[in-house]
Fold this sequence. Notes:
The chain is mostly helical. It has one domain. Helices cover 78% and strands 0% of the residues. Helix 1 crosses helix 3, helix 2 (26-55) packs antiparallel against helix 3 (59-88) and helix 2 packs antiparallel against helix 5.
Amino acid sequence: xxxxxxxxxxxxxxxxxxxxxxxxTVWTLVQGILAPLQFLVFAISTAFVVNFxxxxxxxxxxTVSVIAKTLxxxxxxxxxxxxxxxxxxxYLFAPAFFWEDVVSMLVIALHTAYLAAWLMxxxxxxxQMWIALAAYGAYVINAAQFLxxxxxxxxxxxxxxxxxxxALASGGxx
Length: 174
């Protein structure tokens, strides 16, 4: 496997081959559906968790919402790893998404810690919900990372066209 398969061009996130694989795989669509769904569940769940912590009511719906958010997170992480394998040739920690994957591991660890505490009855419901809020805080950071990458991914085509045009004008030398 060529080293270039796992690197961007230096002008963007993707080489031309990686961009083509990204555009051709169904996993891009799956990620495009799961990401906003996860955000919607996160927003609703956050309201339930905060309500429980503020008012002491609604534990059941807060718990169900955190579990639902966690299950969607697991789905997006598994399908995201498959997407990364298709596009970059490795399941995780491709150079273009290394730091996003690092923070994603923290997000998964915190969500899993909540599930473990809930399933094993460790801590009070209030303490468990604070774990959920810590997981949600990490998720917000991770979501911001991916939104910035999404914005960055829109730029390379224009930048590469500009670079290619400049390279052609200079006889192919940079």
